[in-house]
Amino acid sequence: MSKIPVAILGATGMVGQRLIQGLADHPWFSIGALCASERSAGQRYGQACVWRLPGEPPPGVQDMQVHASDPGALGELRVALSAMPSSAARAVEAEFRASGYAVVSNASAYREDPSVPLVIPEVNAHHLGLINRQPGQGYIVTNPNCCAIPLALALAPLHRAFGVEALCVSTWQAVSGAGYPGESAWDMVGNVHPHPGDEEEKLAIEPQRLLGSMDAPAAFTVSARCVRVATADGHLISVQVRTEKPCTPNQALEAWRGFDSGLELPSLPKPLFHLLERRDRPQPRLDIDRGRGMAVSLGRVQVCPVMGLKFYALAHNTVRGAAGAAISNLELLQSQGLLPSV
Amino acid sequence: MSKIPVAILGATGMVGQRLIQGLADHPWFSIGALCASERSAGQRYGQACVWRLPGEPPPGVQDMQVHASDPGALGELRVALSAMPSSAARAVEAEFRASGYAVVSNASAYREDPSVPLVIPEVNAHHLGLINRQPGQGYIVTNPNCCAIPLALALAPLHRAFGVEALCVSTWQAVSGAGYPGESAWDMVGNVHPHPGDEEEKLAIEPQRLLGSMDAPAAFTVSARCVRVATADGHLISVQVRTEKPCTPNQALEAWRGFDSGLELPSLPKPLFHLLERRDRPQPRLDIDRGRGMAVSLGRVQVCPVMGLKFYALAHNTVRGAAGAAISNLELLQSQGLLPSV
Amino acid sequence: MSKIPVAILGATGMVGQRLIQGLADHPWFSIGALCASERSAGQRYGQACVWRLPGEPPPGVQDMQVHASDPGALGELRVALSAMPSSAARAVEAEFRASGYAVVSNASAYREDPSVPLVIPEVNAHHLGLINRQPGQGYIVTNPNCCAIPLALALAPLHRAFGVEALCVSTWQAVSGAGYPGESAWDMVGNVHPHPGDEEEKLAIEPQRLLGSMDAPAAFTVSARCVRVATADGHLISVQVRTEKPCTPNQALEAWRGFDSGLELPSLPKPLFHLLERRDRPQPRLDIDRGRGMAVSLGRVQVCPVMGLKFYALAHNTVRGAAGAAISNLELLQSQGLLPSV
Amino acid sequence: MSKIPVAILGATGMVGQRLIQGLADHPWFSIGALCASERSAGQRYGQACVWRLPGEPPPGVQDMQVHASDPGALGELRVALSAMPSSAARAVEAEFRASGYAVVSNASAYREDPSVPLVIPEVNAHHLGLINRQPGQGYIVTNPNCCAIPLALALAPLHRAFGVEALCVSTWQAVSGAGYPGESAWDMVGNVHPHPGDEEEKLAIEPQRLLGSMDAPAAFTVSARCVRVATADGHLISVQVRTEKPCTPNQALEAWRGFDSGLELPSLPKPLFHLLERRDRPQPRLDIDRGRGMAVSLGRVQVCPVMGLKFYALAHNTVRGAAGAAISNLELLQSQGLLPSV
């Protein structure tokens, strides 16, 4: 069976490069086109940008031509993965949608649009129904912010069983979350940088959408403190959570061990949750690659004297938290027969 | 007027070196003796240890002789500052006390002893009355853990005005907090290390003692997450606090601006609180030296949708959080005429 | 005696901020005007830029008005310190010179101009004679690259006594050397970055100019490897040097100890050279502030089996290597009566 | 065909863990026994030590029993890989040899013994002949220091074609090179640490042995500067080399491209040399895993005005520079029929 060719929008950035890695040997999809800004269009990919991930780009990629982000120039493609900066994404993603594309985006431009699904496959696959509320043949599907993803994954089984009421969240976030060049080295060397962008605001609304219904977000409250630290990849998150029904550490562990999304998608890891027992884990440099970067590591699950339960969660922010999130959404759409045919 | 000579216990360690710096040009005190382990006793200080702080040790220190931690060998001294490791501190500090010494300690050995004051001058100077419950002429006075100090300082005016009920606390702690050699570089390079020692446990009890009466700790609850990050000095702390009476960010700022301990001690900074307005401050590398390392930087004071109020606090962990804490307690004792005379 | 007011060009950048610090309490000079790009002109300094150095800007600076880099708009000033980016410096510095200004610059724009002195006061003050070859009343004086300064300082006494023939140089350079935002944190976290800009090329020509006569550079050869590492401030330099007359480590130490520039300028430290004896020194974080950032730390002076002599040098790259270099040149000009009078 | 069981000495340390990884799925060898200090003997491996490498230990390892480093207790084994600290290695490795073991060691204890081969398979496999000069059935084979390995590999083809005369070498070395706990985080955060151990001394003698004959080291001179930087893994090395016959950058590149050791061993990568073209490569975090950690990355090959030729080399210090070095020597011995049979 031939693979479905996919256009990658924003192909030259940090997440774009992770998308290229993710599609390189994908069983269902292939790279149909690499799109970037006007400035890069017409160049070889190897000219248009510097490969900034460890190791080499997948074979052949450096010689692919870069296209402008124009659906009219891409021929028969009908599926796009977007890693565009949000400012540029608004117009471009709308244009691709209008041209009949399924746009599966990591950008935040449409995350708050009530007709655009904000989806993590294991959490709220049923939200895909929202695409019917979008006009025309095309649609946009988004994934959440890089911190909201491991947070919502960790909370999903707890919310079902115990009902989440409120969260205090703190983060130790990696510099790759700011893209490239992102944070200045001057700000990060021997330092930490509070408030990376608007993550605290996103964390205050996205988890509720993910854990709610298509039409109504869940009702809990989130208070987040997001701090960038001098790690390359991997966001560590402290969660202190109050639930309607009391949830002991053992009950939480049981909920995570018993969690099964029922989904069989190529990028989804088994197990989803790595439950770490040492009291100084998870750690970014040691634990981010579990499940090929798609697992969520959980540790230090304890009674919280203020909120009831507390634990740490860790995930690879540009894989599970960005490129892998979009790819798993793309796989989900394909598995449900929702991708447009050419 | 001649200065009071002080013995420094644990003089070769990270905090011991900060004590030496702090006494180098002190208007009231001088270094009377440097004490360390048996292994170092008899050596010149410059032989016994490597100076690990930026710059040079104060003039003359390298040539001072190191003594064993034995009150009998120190002649007429009656005052000691202790930066000993807690395991060794238990026996040694008791012995100095039994010899009539005022032992002003940064070690945790006696912090939980109900007859030993746990004091921050601006917070609970009146707890010094506890020394009367100790046997004999000598006594031990301690200061809290390096995170508990900025936390209790920041909370003190809020507790008085609004009544603290509960706290969620997260930390981004510097490696100097683990002493030397402390954390392995392998654990910290491009990484963060959750759970540095037993800080979470200390943060769960020390703030209540500080903000309570001599006989009864304050009744609030603390849930802390302590994580070591790759900074040299300076602990950043996120505080999410619930108060009995509602406290708005403006009321909190007003409380901090209006706070006056009434104390005039050489090491205490004016102002105590540096209220930073930029949303990415305080930052360890930029803000730790405010008030010669004795000020507390506060920032991002906001409504917390879960707890009511949230903010960041930052202080220099081996100055305000350790050596400077002990020295300010020593100054407090002297200002109250509580130091033993020779 | 009233202080001479000085315009600071490029006042909002990393080196510009160091210039402001350097003039804040200067005995001879005051800040006459702060100049920056058109975009910033008309704003208060505190609006136009973020203060990125540790601690607070000097009192009053945040409220000073920022001017465009236009000599016509600055009134009676006749002296400028420039920390402009080199691309912009070419036209602006020429314009200030044409208006009769003494322009004392840290930019590289005119460093290779044979009529523009490239000066370190202790090394080649006599090169100031070149200003007579510049047209009109004004002139430009430059200082070398941040690595060339400690290198030339360390070599100066050796060159006089032994004659430098060739050098192999390697650097461990701090991120502040790239300005702000400078290096991306992604490139520096848990990483090193070879080839920071065109430093290797500058190191291949500037030391010879400094150690030569006004008309002829010294004849030695330099091969440099420049690598950025994850330090905030302070360039560590390894020097392996071949001299005409053999130079033993002891002879080198004697030469450095005996070196006396004969200059008494406010910013120049005494001693200039800090000769460190421990085999793991100098270290950036511990040794950069020696001599208020203006001293050069030297260590590990040994026989080099290939070149003859080897040692490490360290200096603060944005103080001794940039802002302090320009300020000491300004002091030198004033001490020689070479500044234009209003 | 059944795999040859191998005892791992020093199995709990940083390099010991890399040895375990390296043997986990090895086509020729299996883990026959894990040995460590008396203190650990009798415990499960998972109790005796903390796994400190990214990800999980290979399946089953955590439950293996740890043995004392005593050949009498290991039954029928006859092959040992040693990652012991050098101080302990001297006696233990001799004892295993006396018991008839082939001891393939990463320790430095016997590296300077003229009857003990110091070998890199691609460089000087013929030195294995030295084992005949050792007494009894057993023997010891060593690999060089972690910096000497990429250095000698890079020099091997140049030495053959052009004759190496002298080298100036500088390093930017990772903290894993010091083992665990190794360097203190206080020394490495926002800092660099000159002189890591005795690497400079080792680099002054090991390359000559590697590139010489069994009986006579090569005659060139090495002057090394070794500095630890805040990277986790990967030693970057700057090489400035003088050759008897001139060697241009193109000739060097040609020599590396044309190099073929003729060996087909499971751990040896093809190609051995990754020739990187970007001027800011190789970089530790991006390039260490090339060739599964066994390749050497080379870059910035240029004319050196002082020495003739210069370039950067990078290799993974605990894989190619330690555990992988020993394993490839073990493979080499097996491929030559030199391992003792049980």
Tell me the fraction of residues in β-strands of chain A, as a range.
15-25%
Question: Assembly state here?
Answer: homotetramer
- Helix-strand string of chain A: EHEHEEHEHEHEHEHHEEHEHEEH
User: What ranges of chain A have pLDDT less than 50 throughout 5 or more consecutive residues?
Assistant: none
Rg calc of chain A: 19 Å
Order of neighbouring strands in the sheet with most strands of chain A = 8-9-7-10-13-12-11
Biggest sheet of chain A, open or closed, and with what strands and sense?
7 strands, mixed
Q: Compute the number of helices of chain A.
A: 11
Largest interchain contact: A-B, 42 and 42 residues
Overall strand count of chain A:
13
In terms of structural class, how would the helical and strand content of chain A be classed? alpha/beta
Helicity of chain A, in percent? 25-40%
Give the averaged pLDDT of chain A, no decimals: 97
Describe the structure.
4 copies of one chain form a homotetramer. Chain A is an alpha/beta fold and 342 residues long. Chain A is 27% helix and 23% strand. Chain A is built from 11 helices and 13 strands. Chain A has helices spanning 14-24, 45-48, 86-98, 121-124, 148-162, 185-188, 199-203, 206-211, 249-258, 284-287, 319-335; strands at residues 4-9, 29-36, 66-68, 79-82, 102-105, 139-142, 164-173, 193-194, 221-228, 235-243, 273-275, 296-304, 308-315. In chain A, the strands form 2 sheets. In chain A, strands 8-9-7-10-13-12-11 form a 7-stranded mixed sheet. A 6-stranded parallel sheet of chain A has the order 3-2-1-4-5-6, sandwiched between helices. The first copy, chain A, is globular, with a radius of gyration of 19 Å. Chains in contact: A-B, A-C, A-D, B-C, B-D, C-D.
